[in-house]
């Protein structure tokens, strides 16, 4: 058996193509390095020619990589990805034995890649259809800003790098207020709400003063000072990121600038390298981290989604914040999760029920219709208030990571993983037929008449 596996031709086209793109090479440049023609590189990448042992050795010598790792079975990866895709409920009535999937992946890698791309396009179109607005063509600057941040996996290297330098300078100065006074001549003052005229932060340019609402708690005061520093001392980095994109409206541009300033403020208060080390040491215990860095629970949860620095990556998280009516006011994605675009509306997710237990962390294992599993941490947070007669707002936030990472978190170490709660990204994309919490039928399914039969689920729909 081993000799048969060794003699089997190696078709590693997608892997070769990924390597070339990661190295920033054209097909012509790679062909020159390997001493072959560009057309032959194209044939290799399309799996129309196998990679010979000689070519593998030339690749390893030219680009200094682990030969065994590169030449590992691509078919195993295809089989895993195909298995994930074929768990989609749309294929539920088709018998798909694991052996057939493995045979397809190993014998027909090109067809496997085509199926994966086709399903990806299908999923993308379904999601686009599900989130269509009532006014076709109407722009949504909030969604545009969120898409931009998600496209960067919520990590901005230039901002983090400069923020770490500023944080080190602040540590030497003793405080952010002292650093501002020493470097810019700006004095920080804390004033009552009636003087602030309902502003939390205001920069008095004429008198070179940064005015902060004195009813804010310590974490919020620190964040407002850090936000001013981000808008001023990180202006160049923020402007370069914004200029590189073509946003549809000034509103979208303003929202992106606001998001980048908040990102910069968090990076100043929780410098990347120090925060990443603390995260590991504290096993992602958000409350412990908030006390260590003098920040709020929500600020730490937000910062956890940004830890995507090359060489210092940590667990990738998805973050969502909702109010009691289910409105999403913040959505951050550091992992490319399926509910990044419009998820969070499933009432079976605990983020919607934690309002019954304010301040308590609720954990939950989740499973999407395609079989993907996640671990979720949800809790309420409070904003506003500060005095007896000022209104406050209670919202719920949730962090979710792939279930495989759960053992690294303090929240999942003390209990065995229970059966996951089946949830959907949103009702429009969820094909679970027996969900009693469903609000609307899924896209593309015809509702069955219930003249003679009424199921427990709100909608019965066909399986085609």
UniProtKB/TrEMBL annotation:
CDD domains: HTH_XRE. Signal peptide: none annotated. One of its GO terms (cellular component) is cytosol. GO terms for molecular function: DNA binding; DNA-binding transcription factor activity. SUPFAM superfamilies: lambda repressor-like DNA-binding domains. The keyword Transcription applies. SMART domains: HTH_XRE. Keywords: DNA-binding, Transcription, Transcription regulation. The keyword DNA-binding applies. InterPro entries: Cro/C1-type_HTH, HTH_RamB, IrrE_HExxH, Lambda_DNA-bd_dom_sf, ScfR_C, TransReg_Diox_bact_type. Residues 16-70 form the HTH cro/C1-type domain. Belongs to the short-chain fatty acyl-CoA assimilation regulator (ScfR) family. PANTHER family: HTH-TYPE TRANSCRIPTIONAL REGULATOR, HTH-TYPE TRANSCRIPTIONAL REGULATOR SUTR. This is XRE family transcriptional regulator.
């Amino acid at each position: 058996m081993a000799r048969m596996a060794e003699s089997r031709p190696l078709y590693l086209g997608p892997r070769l193509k990924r390597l070339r793109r990661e190295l920033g090479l054209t097909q012509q440049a790679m062909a020159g390095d390997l001493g072959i023609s560009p057309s032959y590189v194209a044939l290799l990448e399309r799996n129309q020619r196998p990679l010979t042992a000689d070519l593998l050795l030339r690749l390893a010598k030219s680009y200094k990589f682990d030969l065994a790792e590169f030449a590992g079975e691509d078919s195993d990866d295809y089989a895993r990805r195909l298995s994930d895709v074929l768990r989609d409920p749309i294929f539920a009535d088709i018998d798909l034995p694991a052996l057939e999937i493995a045979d397809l992946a190993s014998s027909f890698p090109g067809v496997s890649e085509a199926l994966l791309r086709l399903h990806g396009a299908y999923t993308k179109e379904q999601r686009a259809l599900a989130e269509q607005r009532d006014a076709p063509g109407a722009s949504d600057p909030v969604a545009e800003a969120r898409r931009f941040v998600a496209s960067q996996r919520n990590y901005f290297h230039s901002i983090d790098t400069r923020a770490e330098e500023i944080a080190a300078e602040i540590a030497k100065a003793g405080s952010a207020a002292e650093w501002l006074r020493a470097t810019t001549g700006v004095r920080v003052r804390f004033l009552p709400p009636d003087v602030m005229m309902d502003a939390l932060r205001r920069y008095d340019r004429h008198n070179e003063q940064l005015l902060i609402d004195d009813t804010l708690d310590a974490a919020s005061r620190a964040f407002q000072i850090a936000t001013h520093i981000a808008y001023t001392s990180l202006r160049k980095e923020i402007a370069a990121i914004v200029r590189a994109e073509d946003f549809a409206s000034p509103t979208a541009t303003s929202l992106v600038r606001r998001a980048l300033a908040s990102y910069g403020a968090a990076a100043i208060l929780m410098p990347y390298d120090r925060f990443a080390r603390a995260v590991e040491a504290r096993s992602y215990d958000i409350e412990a981290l908030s006390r260590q860095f003098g920040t709020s629970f929500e600020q730490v949860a937000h910062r956890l989604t940004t830890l995507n620095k090359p060489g210092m990556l940590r667990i990738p998280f998805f973050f969502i914040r909702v109010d009691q009516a289910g409105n999403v006011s913040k959505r951050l994605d550091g992992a490319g999760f399926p509910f990044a675009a419009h998820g969070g509306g499933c009432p079976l997710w605990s983020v919607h029920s934690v309002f019954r237990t304010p301040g308590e962390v609720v954990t939950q294992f989740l499973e999407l219709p395609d079989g993907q599993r996640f671990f979720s941490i949800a809790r309420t947070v409070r904003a506003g208030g500060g005095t007896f007669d000022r209104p406050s707002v209670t919202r719920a936030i949730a962090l979710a990571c792939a279930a495989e990472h759960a053992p690294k978190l303090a929240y999942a170490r003390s209990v065995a993983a229970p059966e996951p709660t089946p949830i959907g990204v949103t009702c429009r994309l969820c094909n679970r037929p027996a969900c009693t919490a469903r609000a609307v039928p899924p896209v593309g399914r015809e509702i069955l008449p219930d003249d003679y039969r009424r199921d427990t689920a709100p909608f019965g729909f066909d399986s085609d």
